């Protein structure tokens, strides 16, 4: 036989996959030559009743599971929860005024606006980047893999990733590690001033001495408590009060004013108490400017020398007392939707990438080369040639994603913990909750009809595209 | 040229959609400096792609490793700590799962739902696709446009009406009800895919068969089904995974005795922290079949998914 059968996407005629020859000029090799008109069976064709026999099972199913439900849902949405009283459009009014439904509506808007763009852009970037690497097939296999597994499994995977505790959740583990490298946590996050010692909390989490000091004064003593002895750095030595400073110097001690086992005098350095090494100390003058900075020694002492006369405040650096960064509350009320969109990207990027890559491979090389020969940079080629030639494919990917995003259910349902389900709510989840949790099938039907109305533009787009390509 | 291959080869038997143009770079002549810059840039691109690939692999690896750790370990430290202490891995969670009648039952329910749904969808859609492609009857084109329109109808529209219908028929909660629902909602896409493929079969072949006095059913069996093999394979694999992975339909139409794995696992999610041993190992088992199918038949699956664009 001379011909191989054409796949649905072969000549763009089927309209499922944006065929290479689809919007652009016909392929150089003229693959459309064996174009044919199916179904013109002529005199040999079978009678109509036989065709109906072939179609009958399908028509029965489509009627029972799609046409009848559409009609019944519209009808049912005009009745109250138990279905006994006709309420007109009340359910539709409730849909827009009822707070939980309204949150769902608002989140759906966020989803539809953000998710398809993010996924399409990621798919475009991946498709372009993989064009020139040797292991492109392996890369695509890896990125496409989530499409094969259930949203439930993907949801479980991301519940693990998004665990709050940085010891267990991967996302926060990575973030806190980076954060600790950039701005390490302080050594003494639990420290607090000894009561009645004149040490008071300063802005930003540090401490300062309430009384001002002048050079040559008595040593500035800064007793702190609240730190477990085990948490002290190994270098900490027994605390020591400095000798009276010289006339142009300020000195003092920062120490843990706590004697293990009890005893000792509050506010005074006792023999078993240890200094706090490495605490940043600042001398702030009357104008609020920093006059000098230093760090405490292993025994907690610090000293500033050659200080000009005047009154100063002694301040301890807040960075030494900062709490370790606890990470992002991914599944808290504020960022739960962006977090789930992240999981959505993980699932769908492969889909966008594969479709766009198929479109890319069909772009005539000559067009790209011509632009390069004319001296265009890679970015210009991408921006002015590749993207415009790809735009029909990008459109198909975008519209497809929009339809799926409108109906998103599983990922939200699985990832959002019970306590934030209300904050992460979307229409499809709300529809299920209302109709089968709260048993209000009137409002549930109204939500379903609303979802159907939202996809009607896509339906029209689909039918028109199909007719155009088959005419 | 890969371009030609992409436009002429039949679906399924065609080029691997995941494989790119085979190194056909066709780079023009460039100066040495430009080549060096390109190599440097390509190094950066490679690094970036490695990072992206890790971003895709590591979360799945995390699930797998978590499923191999004792609950107490999962509660106290991250799965990545096994890199330091590989000895703590255990098969306990999986053993526990096999002793759990609910989970084992739900695995078989998944099979009992998925296999008949897939077979029914393919069989019914093949008949309808053939009729739409090669038989003449009044209103054919309009009817087919109707099927195209039904592609995007959301499942939500059918939940309440079919639940009531099933309640009346006494099959609410049963496996039969779940299977039939999947068939109903799988058909528009299945018919669409197969009709388009069948329509592209060379007409001489059919004419010849009809000339020889072949009956329609014989032609369908002897000509269409063998030639449509790749498309049918794509559809079968796509539908199999679609139904296997479904949660929503099961949530509404399957009761506790007939629930598939997805629904059983979803119920455990309410105490995610406490049930992590069941959830991680169960989720991984539910992924194994799709992953095996995916890696074995990825070409067919990807083509099925691509055909589903704008579904």
Task: Give the secondary structure arrangement, pairings included.
The complex is a heterodimer of chains A (471) and B (311).
Chain A: H1 48-76, H2 90-97, H3 99-130, H4 136-144, H5 151-161, H6 170-182, E1 192-193, E2 199-201, E3 207-209, E4 220-225, E5 250-256, E6 280-284, E7 290-295, E8 301-304, E9 313-316, H7 336-361, H8 365-373, H9 378-406, H10 410-415, H11 421-424, H12 427-437, H13 441-470
Parallel strand pairs in A: 4-5
Antiparallel strand pairs in A: 1-4, 2-3, 3-9, 5-8, 6-7, 6-9
Chain B: H1 2-8, H2 32-67, H3 71-76, H4 92-98, H5 101-134, H6 140-150, H7 156-169, H8 175-199, H9 203-211, H10 216-227, H11 229-244, H12 248-253, H13 261-268, H14 276-296, H15 298-307
Helix pairs in contact in B: 2-14, 4-14, 5-8, 5-11, 5-13, 6-8, 8-11, 11-15, 13-14
Structure description:
The complex is a heterodimer of chains A (about 475) and B (about 300). Chain A is about 45% helix and about 10% strand. Chain A is of the alpha+beta class and about 475 residues long. Chain A folds into 2 domains: about 75-165 and about 330-470, MetI-like (MetI-like fold, Orthogonal Bundle), CATH 1.10.3720.10; about 190-320, Immunoglobulin-like. The longest helix of chain A has about 30 residues, at about 100-130. Chain B has about 300 residues and is mostly helical. In chain B, α5 (about 100-135) runs antiparallel to α11 (about 230-245) and α13 packs antiparallel against α14 (about 275-295). Classes of the chains: A alpha+beta (about 475), B mainly alpha (about 300). The interface between A and B is large, with 139 and 146 residues. Chain A: Pfam families: BPD_transp_1 (PF00528), SdrD_B (PF17210). Chain A: Belongs to the binding-protein-dependent transport system permease family. Chain A: This is Sugar ABC transporter permease.
